[in-house]
Amino acid sequence: MHNDIDHVLLDEGTILRRLDGMARDITRDYEGRMPTIVCILHGGIILMADLLRRVELPLLIETISVSSYHGGVESSGVITFHQKGLPDLKGKHVILLDDILDTGRTLAAISRRFTEEAGAASVKLCVLLRKVKDRACAVEADYVGFDIGDEFVVGYGLDYQGQYRNLPYIGVLKPEAISRLA
Ligand code: IMP
Ligand code: MG
Description:
By secondary structure, the protein is α/β, with parallel strands linked by helices. It contains four helices and eight strands, in the order E-H-E-H-E-E-E-H-E-E-E-H. Strands 4-3-2-5-6-7 form a six-stranded mixed sheet. A two-stranded antiparallel sheet has the order 1-8.
């Protein structure tokens, strides 16, 4: 697994130190309230586990399963919701957690449905990574771990063909690993 990585972009210690700061911001912003954290599967799971253990608030956890990549290294532009209903979010203050903000389509589609259909009182967006690029959808994240360049990365929840999510760091794949699994 590690042999497929060309170089590490963010090591584990760097990520965890940043999570301390993000968790402090969330704890401060939601003081006196009980936010509902909605983790976007599967990419958000590692971030959720590490970030939420640092947040010092009562909170609720929900998950939502969507896909936009369908296996490749480019967003397909189509967001597929894998379950029929939405979590019960009526009047709730929601923090939507995802691994990465890329084109913005995923977070735009989900936050629109949470507000318009599920009746959430507020929806904020939290991502570990934000790609610096022009986005297809104008989406602003409220909590961001790191800005990165517009390149394909894996690890810490992010996958290629379903693999590499359990790498404890964020790295860039070797071209031969990409073509081997394509
Ligand atoms: P968006 O809808 O284009 O913003 O894409 C969001 C989803 O695409 C993320 O939740 C990831 O699952 C996936 N994604 C975007 N960039 C990368 C990447 O560099 N590596 C792995 N997955 C990515
Ligand atoms: Mg994802």
